[in-house]
User: What shape does this take?
Amino acid sequence: MSVLLRRNSSQLRLMLSSGGQVTRLSSSDGASTAEPPSAVKKPTQAKKPNTPPIVPDTDIKKSVFISQSSDVFTNLALEDWLYKNFDFSHHHVLLLWANDPCVVIGRHQNPFTEANVSRLVERGITLARRNSGGGAVYHDLGNLNCTFFAPRERYDRKYNLNIVTRALFREWAINAEINERDDIVVRNKKISGTAAKLGHPNCYHHCTILASANKLHLGESLAREPANYISRATASVPSPIRNLVDVNKSVNVAQLRSAVGYEYLRTAATALEDGGRTQMMKQRGFQLINPTEKWFPGIEELRANYSSWDWVIGKTPKFTVEKDLDVKGDDQGMKLKLSVEVEAGLMKEIGIQLPQSEQVVPVVTPLQGKPYNEENLNGIIGALKLVNASNVKQAMNGSV
Amino acid sequence: MTTKMAINAKDIFRNQHRLIRFIEQSIRLCSNQSLKAAQHQREQKASADFQITAQVDAQYTSAPEPIKHDQNVGHQFRASQLSVRLAAPEQLQMKPDSDEDLGFGRLFTDHMLKIYYHRNLGGWQRPEITPLENLVMHPAAKVLHYAVELFEGMKAYRGVDGKIRIFRPDMNMNRMNLAAQRSGLPTFEGKEFVQCLSRLLSIDSEWVPHTDTASLYIRPTLIGIDPTLGVASSDSALLYTILSPVGSYFKTGSSGAVSLLADPSYVRAWPGGVGNRKMGSNYAPTINVQKEAAAKGLQQVLWLYGEEHQLTEVGTMNIFMFYVNDQGEQELITPPLSGLILPGITRDSILRMTRQWGKFKVTEGNITMPQVCELLNQGRLLELFGAGTACVVSPVNRINYLGQDLYIPTMEQEKPVHELIRETLTDIQYGKVDHPWSVVID
Assistant: This one.
C-alpha cells in the first residue's frame, strides 16, 4: 500500500485554480519561508494564484490536539505532517506537546555556538533542529509547546500570543505581557519564545511556555564550549527566563494544557472575542493524537529525517572555530591558535595559526573530513600539546 | 446456404455463450501464454463492463418509504437543538499504537450522542453530545428484562480527500424505525438523527486514521428504560450512539476465507418472528452456537431453516451464491426478504449494483443445502460469500454439514465476483468515485 502524503483539498483548490497539474506529492512546500522572530516584516508571497474565498468565522471550527508522544523528533514530524497534509480552511488546530529533555535549535543555527554538543550526548539530552527559524531553546516535561495552525491568509501571531496571556490570567490571575520581540514576559523575565513557518497554503506559529522546567539543566545545556566562533548562522539572543511556577506555585503543565486549550476554543476564530461556553460548544474540542505510522502514514519518513545526522548537524552553515593552544618548550612556551573550518558538519580544514603571522599552517590528521564536535576539537588540542615548542620553532624557521 | 447449414448456424448462434465458454476453458488448458492472453482478454472485458457509474439508475434505486409516526409519540427532536459537552483533556482516552491490539468493538472514542424520550415530558427531548460515560438506570428498566432493544451497524470512512463519509445512512434510519415500531419503542426522524451523528463524527474525527483504508464503526442503539415490569410499550427510552475504531473484522485465517458450521438443529429466525429486524434479542441465542462452531475449528455459523434446510444467513451477514444455473448462465442469488432475513444494506447495494451492471442474472430466491451439494458435485457452484457492513464481503471456502466437509471453490475463481463487488463498494465508500450513496459529513 503506497501511502504518500496526500494533497489536501485546499492545496488541490490552489493548484487547479492556477492551472497547475494535480500530481501525487511527497513534499508540499511552495514558497516556505522561515521568519526570524525578531523581525517584524511582511514575508513576500512568492506565488499567489487566486486568493481562496473568505470563510466566515462561524464556519471555522477549532480543535485542540494533544500529542501522546514526548519524543522531540516524533513531535517535530507530527508538526510537519499536519503542516503538509491537513486542510485548515474550515478547521483551525492548536497542537500541544511536551518533550523529554532536549535542546532545539532553529533552522539556520549552529548547534556548536548554542550548546556543547558533546556534553549533551554525554548527558543523554537530545539535540534537534526544527524547521522554523529563531533561537535555541531547552525543552523538558516542565515546558509546554503550542503550535497554532491556520491557512496562510489567517496567520495572526498577536492573536495566538494573546490566547496564552489570557489563559494565564483566567486560570491563575498571572499578569503576562507581550514585548516587542513577541516574547511573553512576566515581571520582565521571559516565559516564552516564538518562531513561525509560513508556507502555502498552510502556516504555523509555535511558542514555548516555561511552566516548571529544570532551570539548572537549562543553563548548563545552553552553554557552549569556550572558543572563538566565526559563524554567520542565526545567533540566539539570550534573555533572563523564569518559570511560571516561580510566580504561582500551583502552575503545572497538565493544567496549563487545559487552560490554553479552553481559551483557544472559547475565543472566536479570527477576532479576539470571548464567546464563552456557547462558543466552546460549537467547536470540535480536545483530541489525543498518537503520532505513529498507523494514524498518520508518512510520518515515519519525516521522523527519520528529523533524527538524521544530515539534518541536525549536517545542515549547520559553514563556520570556523578558533581555540588557543599553549605549546610547552624548554625555556618558554608558545601561544598558537588552532583553527578548524567546518562545512556541513565535517571538519574541512584544520590548521594552526602561528604567532606573529597571519598564516595558517594545515595540520595533517586523520580527523580531517570527520564530523566536528567539541570532543574532537579538544582531542586535536590535546595531541598538539605534546609537540615540543622548539620543534615548532625549527619548523617555522625552516619555512619562513 | 443449405437448410442444414442454416440450422447449424442457428444452433451455433443460440449456444454461442456455451461455445465461448468451452473455447475459453480449452485455452485455459493450453500453454501459459494463451492462458495469460485469455486472462488478459477476460480482464479487459470485465473491467470495461463493470464500470462504476456516478449515477445510479432511477429504476434501481428508490428511497426507503418514510416512516409513519404513531400519533402518541409526541414531539420529535431536531438537530438544531443539539447541546454539546466536550470531554476535558483528562477524560480523553489514549489512542493505541497499532491495529494488532484493536480487535472489534473493544475500544471506544471519547464522546457519545444521547437522546432521551419521555412520553410524560411531551416526547423526544433535546439531543446532547457528552463525553463517553456509563448509563444509569433503574433495575426494573425494560431493556434489562425483556430485551426491549434494537441497534444498528454502520461505518464512517475517511475518503481519499481526507473527508469523512457515511454510506447510505437513510437506509439504517429506516430499518431502525421499523424495528422500533415492532418493539413498542418510539420512532424518530432519521434525517435529524443523521445530522446529530455527523456532529458527533466531526468531534471525534481524529479517531479515524489518516490512511485510506481506515474506518470507524458506528453503533446507534435504542433501548426501553421504563422502570416497570409490565410487558408493554416503553414510556421512556434512550437513543444513543457510540463509536469504535476498527481494524480488520476477522482474524486473518487462510487467505481471508471463512469456514462454516451448518447445523439444522439451530434456528435463528422463523416466520412471524423478528428475524428481519436488527434486535438484540436475535443475537443472544446465537452465542452458544458460535462457541460450538469454534470448538469444531469453524469460524462462523451458517443458519439453516426448515425441512429443506434453506440457507438464510451467515453469522451476522446475508448470504450470496454465484453459480451456473440450469440454463447455463451465470447467476447471483440471495434469499428473498421473506421475514427470516435481515434486510442488509450491503445486500441491497449489491443487488442494485449488479442489476445495473447487467452482466449476469441476479435473483432473490431460496437456496437449500441439497441444492448446494448438487451444484458442488456438478462443478456449477462458483462462489459463496457473506455480505455485511463489517467486512463488505466475506468469502466462504468450507461448510461442515451433517458431519461432512464441503469445499467451496470461492477463492479459486479467476476474477471472483465477490472481489469485484468489494472493490466497487469500497471505491464508493472511500470517495474514490463520487456517488450519491456516499454522504460527506464534514
